[in-house]
């Protein structure tokens, strides 16, 4: 047996599907010492690295190439450039220095292992390798770990495959990134919100709080007082000037802070509508976009227009509060007269309204517009390369490895629920791939949101709150109608039953009730949309006691992305491990997506080892 050099190449994938965090990128380009790089993609996979190293040590001429890195961006153009660059770098084509210069005139067998979009980088490499590699270099195995396979993009070129090449496809049915999220290739978005100063809005929002004690103190200070500055006596229920003055000052300050938030949001939107610089690695310069706006000017204008409407609707309230403060008199019924909230409530209701069939409305349209502008391309993905290999000589060389059972989530017996969830998403994606309609895009967003545990709880709370508010509004409406028929007696003391009922009727007005009802309708629409798309509870949070580490006499569930360690026992006091939640959207997109690279599974190792053509030690 000849001792042919066999090279195992690890190709990293996309770590940040939304392209928002530069810290999530793979190892930097030209990195020859990845093990010392804290950001190295494979650094968190000691099990896989150990298995590959053990494989290398069994043979005399097996090499492991780990020095390749790329941006990791979830963008088609980045994957194309990364694959082309890797092919060139290995052999020294198109100006690159050959990494394996000493092997250029030898027969070499390559074994590629790519996780996530790293598999698509490998596919792009095959297209370039078919053009520039030495004829004696051949690929003997390709292992795809959770790779999303496109229908149109990143098609594999088998021209550089050895005639005995084997393909391994490792997948997990709970992998939401492979099955759904990866369909969207996005444009760069790194640090855009940070550069635009969005964190300041978060800080401003955190500073918004209403001091309810001031309201209580002002109302409790209400007494029958003479509201006429002349010799005439005009008794009214007035709040104490000092108490009410503090309340009005507090409300005015709150409105000023809210107006400040509106102003900051407008600045951010204008900033996002101007081109940003997105630095790229030297190998990508001239090949990948380095400058782009996050929002188109037209969409930014619409966004600012909606903010202007909301801010303008608060102007009557600000004017009423300032006028009352200037007068120095604070009647109890005047407090509610001054709350000109009907205009704001109406504007908010109109902004939030959504058509339950088309999923269209001012807010939804803006969200859809922003999302569409970030999408570089959409291509419905599958979990197998079978379609790409169908017309090639390697259609029968595919080994399928389903590692769903290795996902801790599989122990909770929620497969049917998850299938309903992902089935609905995939149906929407098929429609979106065909029609590119906003309805289908928003259907995806609402379906994802509707199955987040926090949102499900909120929807339940909102539903109850809106129902109760509807009952109250009906009662208030009756009270308002009754007030019209109260007798207008010449002498009524401030504490008489008729006057108290009349004062109570000032707590609301027909416009306020109508605006609240309209806002209830908008909220009910959202509740309806989310309820229709909820498949039920998918999140599970097992609670383990350190004094009973193995629930139900079964093996303890592993904590995602953390090495297993014994539960600590607390001899002095009872302590509990922090709970781990399985089945969140983040879990399905990140943890389930990474199960395939935790180890070199036996079936995968067997196929790769069967393709190695070096001598055993």
How much of the sequence lies in strands comes to: 5-15%
Task: Name the poorly predicted regions.
Answer: 18-32, 489-508, 545-557, 561-577
Radius of gyration: 32 Å
Q: What can be said about the biggest beta sheet?
A: 6 strands, parallel
The amount of helix comes to 40-55%
Q: Give the overall form.
A: elongated
Summed up, the helix count is 21
**Which structural class is indicated by helix and strand composition?**
alpha/beta
With strands numbered from the N-terminus, the spatial order across the biggest sheet is: 2-1-3-4-5-12
Number of strands: 12
Average pLDDT, all residues: 82
Distance linking N and C termini: 13 Å
Description:
- It is built from 21 helices and twelve strands.
- The protein has 617 residues and is α/β, with parallel strands linked by helices.
- The strands form four sheets. A six-stranded parallel beta sheet has the order 2-1-3-4-5-12, with helices on both faces. It has a two-stranded antiparallel ribbon with strand order 6-11.
- The protein is elongated.
- Residues 18-32, 489-508, 545-557 and 561-577 have low confidence and may be disordered.
């Amino acid at each position: 047996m000849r001792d042919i050099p066999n090279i195992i190449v690890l190709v990293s994938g996309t770590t940040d599907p939304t392209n928002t965090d530069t810290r999530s990128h793979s190892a930097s380009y030209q990195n020859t010492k990845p093990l010392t790089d804290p950001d190295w993609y494979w650094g968190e996979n000691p099990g896989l690295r150990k298995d590959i190293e053990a494989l290398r040590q069994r043979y005399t001429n097996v090499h492991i190439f780990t020095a390749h890195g790329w941006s990791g961006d979830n963008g088609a153009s980045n994957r194309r450039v990364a694959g082309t660059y890797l092919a060139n770098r290995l052999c020294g084509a198109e100006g690159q220095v050959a990494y394996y210069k000493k092997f250029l005139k030898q027969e070499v067998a390559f074994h590629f292992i790519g996780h996530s979009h790293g598999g698509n980088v490998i596919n792009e490499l095959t297209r370039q390798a078919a053009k520039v590699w030495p004829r004696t270099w051949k690929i003997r195995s390709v292992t795809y770990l959770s790779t999303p396979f496109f229908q149109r993009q990143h098609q594999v070129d088998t021209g550089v495959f050895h005639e005995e090449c084997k393909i391994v496809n490792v997948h997990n049915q709970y992998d939401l990134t492979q099955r759904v999220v990866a369909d969207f290739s996005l444009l760069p978005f790194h640090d855009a919100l940070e550069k635009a100063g969005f964190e300041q809005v978060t800080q401003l929002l955190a500073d918004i709080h209403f001091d309810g004690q001031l309201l209580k103190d002002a109302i409790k200070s209400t007494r029958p007082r003479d509201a006429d500055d002349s010799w005439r006596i005009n008794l009214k229920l007035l709040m104490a000037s000092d108490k009410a003055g503090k309340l009005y000052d507090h409300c005015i300050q709150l409105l000023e802070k809210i107006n400040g938030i509106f102003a900051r949001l407008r600045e951010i939107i204008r900033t996002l509508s101007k081109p940003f610089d997105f630095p790229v690695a030297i190998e990508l310069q001239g090949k990948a976009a380095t400058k782009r706006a996050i929002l188109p000017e037209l969409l930014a204008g619409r966004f600012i227009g909606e903010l202007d409407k909301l801010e303008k609707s608060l102007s009557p309230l600000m004017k009423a509060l300032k006028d009352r403060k200037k007068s120095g008199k604070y009647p109890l019924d005047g407090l509610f007269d001054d709350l000109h909230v009907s205009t704001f409530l109406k504007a908010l209701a109109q902004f939030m309204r959504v058509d339950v069939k088309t999923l269209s409305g001012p807010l939804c349209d803006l969200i859809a517009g922003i999302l569409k502008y970030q999408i570089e391309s959409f291509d419905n993905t599958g979990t197998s390369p079978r379609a790409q290999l169908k017309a090639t000589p390697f259609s029968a060389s595919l080994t399928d490895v389903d590692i769903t059972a290795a996902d801790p989530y599989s122990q909770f017996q929620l497969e049917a629920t998850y299938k309903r969830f992902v089935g609905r998403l995939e149906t929407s994606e098929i429609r979106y791939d065909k029609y590119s309609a906003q309805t289908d895009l928003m259907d995806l967003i609402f379906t994802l949101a509707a199955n987040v545990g926090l949102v499900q709880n909120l929807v339940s709370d909102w539903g109850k709150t809106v129902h109760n508010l509807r009952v109250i509004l009906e009662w208030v409406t009756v009270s308002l109608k009754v007030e019209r028929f109260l007798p207008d007696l010449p002498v009524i003391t401030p504490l008489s039953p008729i006057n108290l009922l009349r004062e109570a009727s000032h707590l609301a007005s027909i416009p306020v009730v109508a605006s609240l009802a309209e806002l209830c309708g908008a909220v009910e629409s959202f509740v309806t949309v989310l309820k229709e798309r909820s498949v039920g509870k998918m999140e599970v949070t097992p609670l383990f006691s350190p004094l009973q580490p193995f629930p139900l006499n079964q093996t303890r569930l592993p904590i995602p992305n953390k090495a297993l360690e014994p539960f600590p026992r607390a001899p002095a006091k009872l302590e509990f491990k922090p709970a781990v939640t399985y089945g969140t959207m983040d879990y399905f997109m990140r943890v389930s997506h990474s199960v395939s690279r935790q180890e070199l599974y036996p079936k995968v190792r067997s196929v790769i080892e069967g393709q190695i053509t070096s001598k055993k030690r």
